[in-house]
């Protein structure tokens, strides 16, 4: 054995953009995932857990002219040559799974999946490179009933995790309607991009610019979008942003589309009808929106929960038909104490070329992805979730030779479902034991020294009351209900149970 | 935009050594993790979820003379230069987390963690490169009460996930006792390896050979180990395996250690006492075993559940004090139909230099890791877990214009907690709808065509009974309980509930 070189001590740090989750952060997420899975399961969706690692080839991120495929994914090369990568979402793996197992899977294949995904992106405040997604997709159904169902399920899910009706809204839009509008604007004969790509390069370029521009509707409003679609606009800093170069006549239908939300679904549909003019694909899109709205209305999901709203732009570039987005509508305070809406917590839509990459066959699919970490953050900011979980009842150690006695107390408490533990640090300094209980957010400490043992009693310390007294209570309150009291050893479990019930 | 080059279709395959998990495989694992977390939590352990990605430096796998750190881990280099890797267990991240957050964490820090880990190893049959672990560790306690508690908790956990008492045994051994034995054998003055490493290189080499050899005790038995420790041994194929080169006098205490399990704990301890001779570290080890045994006995964990067993060798090289291993003792049939014991499903022990790598300070720690996938496999092989989960009630589509009606049925069923869905594939071929229900393992299909609608009834098809009839039933049984019958539409939910109850 060669002498080992002394190495410098490693830094105890998570990699940049990653973080650890402690206690309640972990259990609350687990509870939320479980609640979501419960709804998905009740809707007939089956669980799928694909591997976290995929071939870069299957993920579709392999760029042949780049040496290393690091476009947004964490990737590495195997010794034998395959490039592997961490999944960046749950949709690309679904496509691979469906293509791989399609002969064994039912059609339609309805699956849900939950777990971390990884993005090799520049991290920022509150922006991490590993986060949870929770998806449900129906693969192999072209029916709008599948889309309507996803929206209904999303509403049920949000309510199941603690967002009351009225605090969220699910907005539905349709890519085909926008295609219809753009068809009018650019005068395409049909909407197949592939067929016309080379010929109308300039137009397509504008189309993408239009998509990017209408995405700013939230920020710059109607007039801003009109300026950006046409001749350009001065932004708040005074800088001039070039326009897309549409004429006012071309820009108008786009704006009409964006602002076509009426007081009722019927009104919205009529406005969209006007915006698309005579486009067959636009008609398709409107018919789809109408079907979804009708199905949802029949099941009692009114526009207070799910609404046709053409101002939803996010995802219009990616999806091929209906697009959905769930927003939380309550106000929260931002870092600077200003009110703002919490915003989007889930999104999805229909994408019909999911599996085609693998098999050549087009397979219709539609689905939703919930940003679980954002949803948790929303519930915490609204104070609907405890920031810190309650710790265990701590049995302190007065006599280190009687560990078995103390363990027996903890075991008795656990047997009736009470979270309990014996202090396992060095028991010499009793103050440290109470400091420990405090740090654990323990509700109760139990003390049994030689005196107590001899008398057949234990001391019970109500740490929650104790903290209150330390903070504010008057002497009278203290007298009325002492924060430390004796109970017969035989009554320990019953009295602790009582006390815990009274604390909560 | 340049013309995109046509690329060959990607292969729809998981990377070598990875797999997908479907339906019940996923939910049963989630249920098991939840049950385990429940026990850990009740024992006072707090959840921790560290990031799946660590710096290679923090994992301790960076080999300075190798270009790429791929010793068993999946690793890649960041653009800025840091090597990152997927965690290969949950202990190394715990060390990093504890070192990073030690000022904010309670002492002792008791945490549980669960999740996938990744091993860059050659995959084999049933051996995957991603699998689940479920750990609990107490960091910062030198007390044997921490070790005893881990063993008790492990017993409780195994019972909580469905392994009845008697079907498992937790064996406890102690590295210090073996150190004491080797001390005698090699005549070390003390047991600090570091201090004597250079001087007694030859002896240490032998010591490792001894550890490797006694690890074969299960396979080659007492005589085999004796031969391997001394002059060597012919294996089954006739090949000669060199011996470690101990004298018979040196080998005997090692064998005595290995075979010192007696009928009672007292007897085992007496045997160990004889095996260590006069070694202080050996005495320490025996005292530790005795403390653990006493604490467990006081809490009612007898040797039918947790037993001092010096034949447990796995982990003796790695851990520094007590070592635990949980084995399932029931027989299963292997691939060739031969009975064998299922074997180990969890292991752990005390490791006191966990955090030292980062901080220079020695922090005592002890913990357990449960191999969740193995435990699931055991329950499945024993038939204690359904291989396939029950599918949803399927509402078939007879009239595609009445999707809203069918969705309403599914919604009514879901509202009372029944898993249900409307068939969302192309409804033209009714046979396909029933095939779908079959593939989903659905218990019931619901049929409502125009006739039924007019009469205010629906047809209910008992698919489980139907399958039984198709398989074996006589005509009489069929008559007695038809597998398809009519129910009034208004009674649908109540009747389906009844039928599901009768099926289970």
Walk me through what this model shows.
Two copies of one chain form a homodimer. By secondary structure, the first copy, chain A, is of the alpha+beta class. Helices cover 41% and strands 21% of the residues of chain A. In chain A, the strands form four sheets. In chain A, strands 2-6-7-14-13-12-8-11 form an eight-stranded mixed sheet. Chain A has a five-stranded mixed sheet with strand order 16-15-17-18-19. In chain A, strand 9 and strand 10 form a beta hairpin. In chain A, helix 1 runs antiparallel to helix 4, helix 5 packs antiparallel against helix 11 and helix 7 runs antiparallel to helix 8. The model of chain A has no long low-confidence stretch (mean pLDDT 88). Chains A and B meet through strand 1, helix 1, strand 2, strand 3 and helix 3 of A and strand 1, helix 1, strand 2, strand 3 and helix 3 of B.
In brief, what are we looking at here?
The structure is a homodimer of 504-residue chains. With 504 residues, chain A is of the alpha+beta class.
Major beta-sheet overview of chain A: 8 strands, mixed
Strand content of chain A: 15-25%
How many helices of chain A does DSSP assign?
19
CATH topology of the largest domain in chain A: BirA Bifunctional Protein, domain 2
Quickly give the CATH architecture of the largest domain in chain A. Answer: 2-Layer Sandwich
Overall form of chain A: elongated
The strands making up the biggest β-sheet of chain A line up spatially as: 2-6-7-14-13-12-8-11
Unreliable stretches covering 5 or more consecutive residues of chain A: none
Distance between the termini of chain A: 61 Å
């Amino acid at each position: 054995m060669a002498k080992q070189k002394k190495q410098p001590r490693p830094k105890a740090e998570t990699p940049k953009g990653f973080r650890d989750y402690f206690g309640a952060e972990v259990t609350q997420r687990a509870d939320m995932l479980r609640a979501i899975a419960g709804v998905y399961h009740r809707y007939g969706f089956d669980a799928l857990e694909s591997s976290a690692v995929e071939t870069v080839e299957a993920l579709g991120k392999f760029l042949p002219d780049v040496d290393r495929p690091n476009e947004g994914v964490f990737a590495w090369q195997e010794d034998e040559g395959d490039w592997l990568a961490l999944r960046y979402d749950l949709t690309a793996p679904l496509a691979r799974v469906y293509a791989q197992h399609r002969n064994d899977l039912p059609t339609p294949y309805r699956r849900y999946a939950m777990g971390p995904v990884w993005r090799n992106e520049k991290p920022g405040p509150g922006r991490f490179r590993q986060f949870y997604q929770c998806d449900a997709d129906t693969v192999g159904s072209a029916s709008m009933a599948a889309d309507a169902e996803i929206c209904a399920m999303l509403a049920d899910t949000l309510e199941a995790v603690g967002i009351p009706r009225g605090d969220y809204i699910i907005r539905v839009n349709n890519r085909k309607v926008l295609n219809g509008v753009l068809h009018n604007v650019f005068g395409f004969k049909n909407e197949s991009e592939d067929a016309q790509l080379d010929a109308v390069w300039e137009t397509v370029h504008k189309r993408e610019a239009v998509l990017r521009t209408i995405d700013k509707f939230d920020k710059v409003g109607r007039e801003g979008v009109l300026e950006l679609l046409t001749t350009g606009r001065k932004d708040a800093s005074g800088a001039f942003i070039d326009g897309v170069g549409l004429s006012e006549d071309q820009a108008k239908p786009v704006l009409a589309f964006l602002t076509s939300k009426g007081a009722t679904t019927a009104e919205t549909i009529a406005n969209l009808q006007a915006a698309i003019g005579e486009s067959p694909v636009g008609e398709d899109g409107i018919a789809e929106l109408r079907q979804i709205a009708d199905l949802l209305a029949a099941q009692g999901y009114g526009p207070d929960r799910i609404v046709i709203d053409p101002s939803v732009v996010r995802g219009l570039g990616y999806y091929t038909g209906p697009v959905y987005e769930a927003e939380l509508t309550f106000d929260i305070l931002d870092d600077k104490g200003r009110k703002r809406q919490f915003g989007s917590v889930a999104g999805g839509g229909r994408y019909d070329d999911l599996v085609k990459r693998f098999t050549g066959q087009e397979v219709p699919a539609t689905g939703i992805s919930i940003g679980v970490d954002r949803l948790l953050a929303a519930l915490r900011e609204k104070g609907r979730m405890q920031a810190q979980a309650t710790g265990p009842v701590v049995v302190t150690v007065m006599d280190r030779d009687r560990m078995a006695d103390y363990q027996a107390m903890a075991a008795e408490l656990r047997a009736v479902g009470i979270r309990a533990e014996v202090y396992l640090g060095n028991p010499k300094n009793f103050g440290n034991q109470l400091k420990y209980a405090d740090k654990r957010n323990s509700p109760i400490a139990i003390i049994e020294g030689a005196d107590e043992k001899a008398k057949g009693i234990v001391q019970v310390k109500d740490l929650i009351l104790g903290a209150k007294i330390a903070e504010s209570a008057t002497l009278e309150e203290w007298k009325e209900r002492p924060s430390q009291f004796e109970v017969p050893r035989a009554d320990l479990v019953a009295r602790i149970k009582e006390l815990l019930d009274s604390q909560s």
